[in-house]
Specification:
The chain is an alpha+beta fold. It has helices spanning about 15, 25-40, 50-65, 65-80, 95-105, 110-115, 130-135, 280-285, 340-355, 360-375, and strands at about 120-130, 135-150, 165, 175-180, 185-190, 200, 215-225, 235, 255-260, 265-270, 270-280, 285-290, 295-300, 310-315, 320, 325, 330-335. Among the domains are: about 125-160 and about 205-260, Sandwich (HSP40/DNAj peptide-binding domain); about 265-335, HSP40/DNAj peptide-binding domain, CATH 2.60.260.20; about 345-380, no CATH class. The chain binds zinc ion (ZN) (2 copies).
Length: about 375
C-alpha cells in the first residue's frame, strides 16, 4: 500500500502510456506491452533517453495495472494538495485514519481488504545446477493452481455477463455504515456484504467452472532466470498464483531457488572460489597452470615460491550478473607425490643436500624454538 502512495513525482502515468483516464485494464495492458517492446534497452543500447523512457513506462504500468495503486493515484490526481499519508491535509476530519480507510474501502480495498480478496500467492521451490544459476537459464515450472476461469473471466457468471446489479448497494460495491458515537454520528464506507464489493450478483452460473470463477489446473510457466541467481533468491510472476475466490486479481507465483553445489567451484555472491592442487615443483619454481572458469580453462602463472593455501585473485572471472561481475579466487594446495621413482628420489636427495632450512620461514622458526627448548635439531638431512 505504501508504495502506491508515493506521489512525490507528479508524472502523468496516463500520458506516459498514451491512454485515456478511463482506460480499461485491457487497454492499459496493451499500451504497456507495445511501449515496453518499443523502448526495450536491448534495442537501444547506450541510449539514456530510451532507458529513462523504459523506466517511466514500467513505473506507470506498475501503478495503473494495480487496482489499489491506480485508485490511490487517481485520488491524488483529482485532489491535489490534500496531503499524503502523513495526514497533514486531513486534520479537519477528526483523525485521518478513519477517513483514509473509508477512501480506500470506497475504491474496493485498502490494505486489509486487499489481503482478503486477492488470490493467494503460491510458492514453488526450484533446484538449479550451479552452472545454470551462475550463467542464467530458461526453465519451466509446472504446478497446480486454481486458475481463473477463462469462459467467465473469473466472474463465475455465464459468459462473464450473467449478472444483475446488486440491490443492496445499487451496483456501487460499497455501502455506508452510520454509527452513533459519543462524538456524534460518523459515517464509514465499506465493501457491500451482499456482493462482496463487486456491485453485481451472479444470476446464471458459468457452466465451465460451476460458478466458482476458477478451475483446478496444472499450469506451466517459463522462467528466464538471470545469471547470478542464488539460494533463496526468487522470481515473482504476477497473477500466476491462486485465483481469487471473489473474482479479484489472482495471487502471484513465487519461485524460490536453491543452488546445488559444484565439484570444482564454490561461490559467495558473484565471486567464485576454486581449490587448485599444484605440484610441489610448480610451487617452488613457479609455472603455468590451467584454472577452470565458468566458460573455459584459462592459463595462469603461479609465481616462484608459492605456499600451500595461498590465494590469487583473477579479476572479473566470477559470475557476470546485472549487479556486477565477481572475481575468481584461486586457492592453491601444494601436492607432494605419493610415490617416487628411483631417479626422482636421487634427484630430490641432491636438492635436499643443497637445501638450507634457513630458506624456509616457518621451518626455521620451528627449528629455532625446538633447539632452544630441547637442544635438538628439528630437521635431519
Ligand atoms: Zn452490493
Ligand atoms: Zn467460469
Amino acid at each position: 500500500m505504501e508504495k502506491g502512495l508515493e506521489m512525490a513525482e507528479k508524472k502523468d502515468y496516463y500520458e506516459i502510456l498514451g491512454v485515456g483516464k478511463n482506460a480499461s485494464d485491457e487497454e492499459i495492458r496493451a499500451a504497456y506491452k507495445k511501449l515496453v517492446k518499443m523502448y526495450h534497452p536491448d534495442l537501444h543500447p547506450n541510449d539514456p533517453l530510451a532507458a529513462e523512457k523504459f523506466k517511466e513506462i514500467n513505473e506507470a504500468n506498475e501503478v495503473l495495472s494495480d487496482k489499489q495503486k491506480r485508485a490511490a493515484y487517481d485520488f491524488e490526481r483529482e485532489h491535489p494538495g490534500m496531503g499524503g499519508p502523513d495526514g497533514a491535509g486531513f486534520g479537519g476530519f477528526g483523525g485521518f485514519g478513519d477517513i483514509f480507510d473509508s477512501i480506500f474501502q470506497g475504491f474496493g480495498g485498502g490494505a486489509s481488504v486487499q489481503r482478503d480478496t486477492r488470490g493467494e500467492d503460491i510458492q514453488v521451490n526450484m533446484s538449479l545446477s550451479f552452472m545454470d544459476a551462475a550463467k542464467g537459464c530458461r526453465k519451466e515450472v509446472t504446478y497446480t493452481r486454481n486458475e481463473p476461469c477463462k469462459a467467465c473471466s473469473g466472474t463465475g457468471a455465464k459468459n462473464g455477463t450473467a449478472f444483475k446489479t446488486c440491490a443492496k448497494c445499487s451496483g456501487k460495491g460499497q455501502v455506508r455504515f452510520t454509527q452513533e458515537t459519543i462524538f456524534g454520528r460518523t459515517v464509514r464506507v465499506g465493501a457491500c456484504p451482499d456482493c462482496k464489493g463487486r456491485g453485481k450478483i451472479v444470476t446464471d452460473k458459468c457452466p465451465e467452472c460451476k460458478g466458482k470463477g476458477f478451475l483446478r489446473r496444472d499450469t506451466t510457466v517459463t522462467l528466464d532466470i538471470p545469471a547470478g541467481a542464488d539460494t533463496n533468491s526468487y522470481i515473482r510472476r504476477r497473477g500466476f498464483g491462486q485465483a481469487s475466490p471473489d473474482g479479484w486479481e489472482p495471487g502471484d507465483l513465487i519461485v524460490v531457488f536453491r543452488v546445488e553445489p559444484h565439484k570444482l567451484f564454490s561461490r559467495k555472491n558473484m565471486d567464485l572460489y576454486v581449490d587448485l592442487p599444484i605440484p610441489y615443483y610448480t610451487a617452488a619454481l613457479g609455472g603455468k597452470v590451467y584454472v577452470p572458469t565458468l566458460d573455459d580453462a584459462v592459463e595462469y602463472t603461479i609465481p616462484e615460491g608459492t605456499q600451500s593455501g595461498e590465494t590469487f585473485t583473477i579479476r572479473h572471472k566470477g559470475i557476470k550478473s546485472k549487479n556486477g561481475t565477481g572475481n575468481l579466487y584461486l586457492r592453491v594446495q601444494v601436492e607432494v607425490p605419493a610415490k617416487l621413482s628411483r631417479e626422482q628420489r636421487e634427484a630430490l636427495k641432491a636438492v635436499a643436500a643443497a637445501q638450507d632450512v634457513k630458506q624456509f620461514d616457518l621451518s626455521k622458526k620451528y627449528a629455532d624454538s625446538m633447539s632452544a627448548l630441547y637442544g635438538v635439531e628439528a630437521y635431519k638431512k
